[in-house]
Write the structure tokens for this entry.
Amino acid sequence: MKKFILIIVIIILIGLGFYFIKNKEKAVPAPVEPVPVVTEPIVQVPVDKTKTVIGTSVEGREIVAYHFGEGDTELLFVGGIHGGYSWNTTLVAYRLMDYLLEEGTTNVIPTNVKVTVIPVLNPDGLSKVATTTGRFTKADIRASQTTQVAGRFNGNTVDLNRNFDCDWQATGKWQSKDVSGGDAVFSEPESQAIKNYVETKKPDAVVVWYSAAGGVFASNCHKGILPETSTLTKTYADASGYPASDDFDFYEITGDMVNWLAKINVPAISVLLSTHNEVEWDKNQKGIDALLKYYSK
């Protein structure tokens, strides 16, 4: 009897042993085949087609042109040629960009027109008075009158609006002061940048904002005012309420940008804001809208 019980126990133990061995084998996971690594192609970020870097300043800051609309007739608006001295001209250019985006380009710009805005032609001068880089507001301007005057000039202490090819002189006038017109015509990278853009793109009309005299002035470089420039002057002035003038005769101007544009037969006007610290957007919006309507014909 004892032998029979012993045999039964041995059989049970052997069975249990096989049971645990079998389940242990099941618990061991099968080896996992390595997953091949698939290398995805690098996706390039699309270039922003709404803006173009047209050059850099003396101190290496970008000069940017922003484009709105797809038409063949290009209207070019330029602010900030006198940098920190006329910082409000940059703000009116930014306000134009906001206006086009807020209202929708297709609602403001005729289908046959493209609007290009260069808000800051003299970024080095602007940097002297703005406490922030890039887009700024009126609250970001912190400068004494002396610093603001210094902001009129570029990194080479050149008055950019004396560096263009119409009656250029190495020493020009600003009010009663002597100012540098540069070592030669278009000696400055900023004036070179706008020259290259104009000669390449050939805009149909150009508006350049300055301050401060409160008026719209036609361009001319000894060949008489272009008929289209006369129309530009009257159209902008009548709509905005600024007085129109055929000539800026407060003092002698040499190397002026819009007069150079006249020399190469590009219709152009100077719009001078009334002060150095106001945008006068209501007036300028009306002038801009009138030009867009005129060029929609």
Notes: The chain has one domain: 51-295. Residues 18-47 have pLDDT under 50 and may be disordered.
